[in-house]
Design goal:
8 helices, alpha/beta, 2 domains
Length: about 300
Amino acid sequence: MSVDDLVIPIYNDDKSERVWILALPYVRSSELTQAESYGKGMREIITMLMERVNSLRAPRELVVMIAHLYATGAEIADGSSERILVGGLENVALNDFEEHPDYLASGHIHKRQRIKGTDWARYSGSIMPMSFAEKNNRHGIDLLTTDRDSYDVEFIEYTPQRKLIEIPEEGTVPIEDVIEAINDLPPLDQENPQTMSYINVRMAREEMDMTARKKIEDALSSRHVIFAKLQSVDSNPAQNIQGGRDGETGIRYENLYKRDPMEALTIGFIRENGVEMSDRQIELAQMVIDEARKMETEVNAEV
């Protein structure tokens, strides 16, 4: 793929106006082996694209970049899976570009926001919540309308058809309070299954067992909801942050990478669900581990 493949002119109906699109796909760190760091490598790519489009566009023609990257300072929802996906190394500083597009629409971060330190770059965010941690975010799309050398951004909000419900909203409560809250939910409407809400039930780890799960499942069976998750929560918040106690089923994050992947998955599954993985789940997990090791070997071979 050449630079010109990523620089795309877009015309209006009568071709009297033109906007330039810089289409920057997600770039893996393994594809930037010559760069000093991932962030600097990405900045070099953006600079290269800007130099190319500047050599092609007429004065005052707009440049819009569509990218997939993690911008330094982007805000991520607490408890979101983005922390695992994003990590901390593959970030790109955008606040000090001398030559930058007129507008940057980036994907990767689920929360709608302007990218810190800029007045030209933003995340439109995911169209709908990707996890319970994002249920209070505003979701939708940004409609960008250009008019010669200016543009306007209109946010079109989307209200998900299915709500996300957590019981309780914060912390944990006894199983009796959980059941009472479930009984207050709307009754099952079999004529409209498409409007059923997703529900996440939070319970203290020491109270979660198969009996509690059975009580919750029985109570939910007559409610207009889909049982999405039973979340195990430590009573001590510090234990949650550190990833658990140093016991038989506990594991701290700093020790995670020292463990066999299957052992780490097994421990995590027990901590999250209160039960052991089934034989089929173990088989599927091993397939994923084997495939990941294969991909890692191939990447290392290319480097």
